[in-house]
TrEMBL record:
Native organism: Marinobacter xiaoshiensis
Key words, A-Z: Cytoplasm, Disulfide bond, FAD, Flavoprotein, NAD, Oxidoreductase, Redox-active center
Listed PROSITE patterns: PYRIDINE_REDOX_1
Cofactor comment: Binds 1 FAD per subunit.
Protein name: Dihydrolipoyl dehydrogenase
């Protein structure tokens, strides 16, 4: 088989493997390079961070821990007596690993079904769209391509005050591998990853303290939603310290001693495990030859235009390694767009309609603009909210906290932002994404018939509330 391809994709995560499959479906001779190996080093592992040590395993643990918490605390009030509920951490981890194995194996099957050639090794982009692949034995082989798609993803950021220490100070990947529930758990960073991991272990019995250096909780989230979420997380027992800047962490006598400063001065925290979850950075280690023609900014992100083209002809980059939110679904959309553009089509990702989700309980999800952004931009807007406390289905499910919030343009009524904190927010937000993708007004949603009783009725009511017409809550009086 010739070593020249129409498309070579470097990286088999949600951006890379999706791009490779789509390119092959469009009749392009396609190969995908991935360096991730199984624990014995013999076989290739597809799926990237998301499937192996990110989105999927964390959601498996979130689901299991949520069920455990419900059985332990919430069943009795619903008439279900389940005494002495226990968690088997080993079985929980086996379940998580089984799901990961099934999904990563599924990608290998999809590659085969679509005719994608899988190349195992570390890919490096050379000049003129040549890709040098180094295998586990250190042997190199060079491949040629008409087009190269870089989809190498990201890796956890490490910080000097809290160096990784096996078994004690870990990153988000290590936090998915605990073999027992830590009695006391510290987390640096109250972002998406920190809150999700904190939720898992708090539900299973850990005493969790989250240290966040910023003074604003979830600054990217609409602050009405963020404040509601913070109140609920604290009510659940998560000790979230805002303005807590970590200055040091060291292991002494099988405990991690964490030093930090907050508004009250210098503080100390002793924990059994410490998770560092301060964000992720682009993974570009040994990726680009000096003459590859591809440029990066000072933070390591590859420069691309709105179509994901780099400055080198025929070279594209997608996902966490380029600008924009580090989200698996954003990477996949970019991967599809690039494959279709290579095939001569002209799609474009609508970056205004990419949903964000935090899979805590309650979930937090949003798409579009926040009130804070619109105020900064000087845009006139109107807001409608509806609480799940007034939703029959949410009450029946014992999940009546949170709200749906819809922000619309003051003059045109077009939906500008759609925000949810509450049950199934990750699913409900898709209604906002679809509405915004089609340029809907709040009135469009208000005139739509929603099934009763459903959680989605809260979307209907929030849309009605935008223009003062909600049925199941009192509407704000309009100013005369």
């Amino acid at each position: 088989m010739s070593d020249k391809y129409d498309v070579i994709v470097i990286g088999a995560g949600p951006g890379g493997y999706v791009a490779a499959i789509k390119a092959a479906q469009l009749g392009l001779k396609t190969a995908c390079v991935e360096s991730w190996s199984s624990s014995d080093g013999k076989s290739q592992v597809l799926g990237g961070t998301c499937l192996n040590v990110g989105c999927i395993p964390s959601k498996a643990l979130l689901e299991i821990s949520h069920k455990f918490e419900e059985a332990s605390h919430d069943y009795e009030m619903q008439g279900i007596i389940a005494k002495d509920v226990k968690i088997d951490v080993t079985k929980m981890m086996e379940r998580k690993s089984g799901i990961v194995k099934q999904l990563t194996g599924g990608i290998a099957g999809l590659f085969k079904a679509n005719g994608v050639t899988s190349i195992h090794g570390h890919g490096k982009l050379m000049a003129n769209r040549q890709v040098e692949v180094t295998d586990s034995d250190g042997k190199t082989k060079t491949y040629e391509a008409e087009n190269v798609i870089i989809a190498t993803g990201s890796k956890p950021i490490e910080i000097p005050p809290a160096p990784m220490t096996e078994g004690y100070i870990v990153d988000s990947e290590g936090a998915l591998e605990f073999d027992e529930v830590p009695k006391r758990l510290g987390i640096i960073g109250a972002g998406v990853i920190g809150l999700e991991l904190g939720s898992v272990w708090a539900r299973l019995g850990s005493e969790v303290t989250v240290l966040e250096a910023q003074d604003t909780f979830l600054p990217a989230v609409d602050q009405q939603i963020a404040k509601d979420a913070l109140k609920q997380f604290r009510k659940q027992g998560l000790n979230i310290v805002m303005g807590g800047r970590v200055t040091g962490a060291e292991v002494k006598r099988k405990l991690v001693n964490v030093s930090y400063e907050d508004g009250k001065g210098k503080q100390e925290l002793k924990v059994d495990k410490l998770i560092v979850a301060v964000g992720r950075r682009p993974f570009t280690d040994n990726l680009l030859a000096a003459d590859s023609g591809v440029n990066m900014d000072e933070r390591g992100f590859i420069f691309v235009d709105e179509k994901c083209k780099t400055e080198a002809p025929g070279v594209w980059a997608v996902g966490d390694v380029v600008r924009g939110p580090m989200l698996a679904h954003k990477a996949s959309e970019e991967g599809v767009m690039v494959a279709e553009r290579i095939a001569g089509q002209k799609p474009q990702v609508n970056y205004d309609c990419i949903p964000n989700v935090i899979y805590t309980s309650p979930e937090v999800a949003w798409v579009g603009k926040t009130e804070e952004q619109l105020k900064t931009e000087g845009e006139a807007y109107k807001v409608g909210t509806f609480p799940f406390a007034a939703n029959g289905r949410a009450m029946a499910a014992n999940a009546a906290s949170g709200m749906v919030k819809i922000i619309a343009d003051e003059k045109t009524d077009r939906i500008l932002g759609f925000h949810v904190v509450g049950p199934q927010a990750s699913e409900i937000v898709a209604q906002g994404v679809i509405a915004m993708e089609f340029g809907s007004s709040a009135e469009d949603l208000a005139l739509t018939c929603f099934a009763h009783p459903t959680l989605s009725e809260s979307v209907h009511e929030a849309a009605l509330a935008v223009n003062g017409g909600a049925i199941h809550i009192a509407n704000r009086r309009k100013k005369k």
